[in-house]
Design brief:
With about 250 residues, the chain is α+β, with helices and mostly antiparallel strands. The chain is about 50% helix and about 20% strand. The chain contains nine helices and eight strands. The protein has helices at about 1-25, 30-35, 40-50, 65-75, 80-95, 140-145, 150-160, 170-185, 225-250; strands at about 55, 60-65, 100-105, 110-115, 130-135, 190, 200-205, 210-220. The chain has a six-stranded antiparallel β-sheet, with helices on both faces. Strands 1-2 form a two-stranded antiparallel sheet. The chain is globular, with a radius of gyration of 20 Å. The chain starts with a helix and ends with a helix.
Length: about 250
Amino acid sequence: MRQNLRVKSAGTMIQVIDAIKTLDNPTLSEIAKHVAIPKSTAHDHLTTLTKLELIVSTQSGYRIGARFLEYGGYARKNMRVYRVARPIVENLAAETGEHSNLGIEEHGRAVFLYKAEGEDAVTIDTHPGMRVPLHTTAMGKAIMAHRPRTEVEEIINKHGLTKVNENTITDRETLFEEFETIREQGYAIDNGERVERMRCVAVPIIGEEENVIAAVSVSGPMNRMNNERMKNDLPQRVKSAANVIEVNLKYSE
């Protein structure tokens, strides 16, 4: 029983951290309401998190502390695909002038590992560590298309097909039909399915055992990502980048 209480308490603490991130500098009352716990319980968790230097108390509320950067930086640095792909992602951004991204799947979500900005890149909300629904991004769809259907079904059953905007694919069979197209052409496209008026091209990164381990992409505003560019220039550039990453993963230490 005591162990179950400790597990429940740890789960509540994570919910408190998520609330601080979601609500952006919330007060004690706002956190308690969001997590649906008494203010006294919220206060105890906030006090513990502050002592651990994981959050910071400000005049207006609470914010996530910089210590999380230490954990995130350590996690990313120890991912070989990040170390190998980073310079290639940077080159891709410089070549295209747009955003270039490296992403993975973790716990059924798409995670942005790295983002490089070209000279003409616009400002968008993505940042390293950001987690989004897989089906809403070209990178996520590129990864899902190369996973076994049973595995993808499990992810969808767990997380659903969240509708982010009017362009998001929320029908399961429509999504699986798109996966067939992705496998045939070798790349995935996102037509403003998470960020409106933005388009993206992504290619999976395949490991030695033919398993997809990540994806690389280029994204930009629709007025620059015209049909000609989306069908020829960008897919070839992103495919080339993915191929270089795959080769370097195989032969570099």
